[in-house]
Amino acid sequence: MNKPDDPNDTNPVSDMKDKTGDTTLGVGAAPSTAASEATTLGKMLRDGSLRHDAPQSLRERLRRELAHAERQASPAVDDVQVTPASPPPGAMPGAASPRPGKPDQRPEVAWGLSLAPWLFGGAGGAILGGLAVAMALLVVRPPAPPQDASQAQSTTGLQPQEIVASHVRALLSQHPIDVVSTDQHTVKPWFNGRIDYAPPVTDLSDKGFPLEGGRLDYVGGRTVAVLVYRTDKHPIDLYVFPARDKGAAAPTITGADGYAIARWRRGGMTYWAITDAEASHLRVFVEALQAAT
After folding, report:
1. Which SS3 state, helix, strand or coil, does residue 262 take?
2. Which of 22, 44, 142, 207 has an alpha carbon within 20 to 30 A of 218's alpha carbon?
3. Cα distance between residue 103 and residue 78, in whole Å
4. Cα–Cα dist 235/227, whole Å
């Protein structure tokens, strides 16, 4: 009798089946089913039945966008000049080298050029255009002309509108003059202790501009002395206060709101004169006052 592991045992495998007809492996028909499914899937992958082609409209749109991007990027590519690099040591003299004047077709360059239409279009283009216009205005705009001394003082100190407002307030007041006197030796001492400077007071009655008195007013952020003269029936208010700039300045006569206004600097003092008379009368008054002082 032969042993089960006897190499001479010639019993066929079919004799080792169990009562159900299955082999001793115990897996039944599962291996054959899996092999059949794997064969079917491989066949579908090979014959292309699982492939889905893109619609023709999508292909045409991609072609148009690529062509547009290439047209937009072609000028920038032509402007890029790359200097050919020297051949590496040991290279053959006849080895091919980059052609001069051709752009370096690096991936990062191509990527940047492909993004150019998107970055510089729409809102980005509007912003860059606005910046360009602003820079052009800054370059074309001429420098502001320098101001002379009188213009600088008028823009940084007392303004003509303040003189007009003060003069009108005095005309509307019931007491436009605080000290009424035609004597300069009476008017000048009246300011002592009321302001921190001594204004020069001149009698111009012999020139046709008699002194009527003086008052205090508040203009230019400080209390100032005002001398009141008259020409015919028109009052002339003369504002006198220390000058910020000690240099002299020639008289200038302008008009504002129907009044003639003169201003000048002399002897460390700033003078403003205003009247509703003709500007020619104010000019004569200024000349007479300068001649007397």
Report:
1. strand
2. 207
3. 7
4. 10
Handedness of CA 35, 41, 46, 47 (dihedral sign): positive
Tokens read off for 31: 């291996």
Count other C-beta atoms under 10 Å from residue 271's C-beta.
24
CA distance 292 to 26: 140
pLDDT one-digit tens code per residue, 18-41 = 444 444 444 444 555 666 666 777
What DSSP state is assigned to residue 25? T
**What are the DSSP calls for 276-291, one per residue?**
SS-HHHHHHHHHHHHH
Dump pLDDT digits (tens) for 174-212: 889 999 999 999 999 999 999 999 999 999 999 999 999
| pTM attached to this predicted model | 0.48
| DSSP code, position 157 | S
C-alpha angle with apex 187: 288 to 163, nearest 5 degrees? Answer: 65
Query: CA dist 242 to 30, 113, 119, 178, 264, Å?
Result: 117, 69, 63, 21, 12
* Distance from C-alpha of 119 to C-alpha of 101, rounded to nearest angstrom: 27
Query: Within 10 A of 77 (CB to CB), how many other CB atoms are there?
Result: 15
Query: Which of 228, 231, 191 is closest to 213 using CA atoms?
Result: 228
Phi, psi of 154 (to 5 degrees): -70, -25
Report the alpha-carbon distance of residue 116 to residue 39 in Å, rounded.
50
Q: DSSP code of 205?
A: G
Tell me whether residue 69 is exposed, middle or buried, using C-beta atoms within 10 angstroms of its C-beta: 0 to 12, 13 to 18, 19 or more.
middle
Half-sphere exposure of 40 (CA within 13 A, CB side): 6
Question: Is-contact 178 214, C-beta < 8 A?
Answer: yes
CA distances from 42 to 29, 33, 34, 49, 118 (A): 21, 14, 12, 11, 44
